[in-house]
């Protein structure tokens, strides 16, 4: 932002600051830690700071402060980045997205007005220690490069019965394909057994 026309204040719900926190803190004139603040106290702080546009970076993720936005301490409120779906809050004015994640008509399923950025609503820079790009492990010559491996590193709460059915159909339709699941919940043996059964019920056995 042009500092001559935009004054930036960051509200940081960061319980364990690190090097990234320090770098970001050095980029803005005002930085406020919100850890331990009640929703009402934080909303009042936003009002006292005279914020015109309040941007949410969490959505419905752990540690979010959406109850602050529900109090509408700023006249314009925008959600972006952390949760690629609607907040469901009538107090949230806009949601930053793009034409791929949210094509025309998707606004029927969100409480906010979409602000579609050209290209992608996510902006990434390759890490400085990025590995060299190599050929993918799969091509049309499956026997040369091995089977297709699908993967999901999502929170296991997103894996319901309907998802297991759909993924099982995909695996059945791609001969020799595999599914790699990775998440913290799978460190629990009982949860592993439940997930295995979900797929076994549809003919997909665990590879040992």
Structure description:
The N and C termini lie far apart (53 Å). The protein has helices at residues 19-25, 39-48, 66-70, 142-145, 161-173, 189-200; strands spanning 9-12, 30-33, 53-56, 76-79, 94-98, 113-117, 149-152, 178-181. It has 208 residues and is of the alpha/beta class.
Give the key terms.
208 residues; two-stranded parallel ribbon; alpha/beta; elongated
Q: How many strand elements? A: 8
Poorly predicted regions: none
Number of helices: 6
Determine the structural class based on helices, strands and strand pairing: alpha/beta
What distance separates the N and C termini? 53 Å
Largest sheet: 4 strands, parallel
Order of strands across the main sheet:
3-4-5-6
Q: Approximately how much helix is present in the residues?
A: 10-25%
Mean pLDDT: 92
Topology:
Blueprint: E1 9-12, H1 19-25, E2 30-33, H2 39-48, E3 53-56, H3 66-70, E4 76-79, E5 94-98, E6 113-117, H4 142-145, E7 149-152, H5 161-173, E8 178-181, H6 189-200
In short:
The protein has 208 residues and is an alpha/beta fold. 25% of the residues lie in helices and 16% in strands.
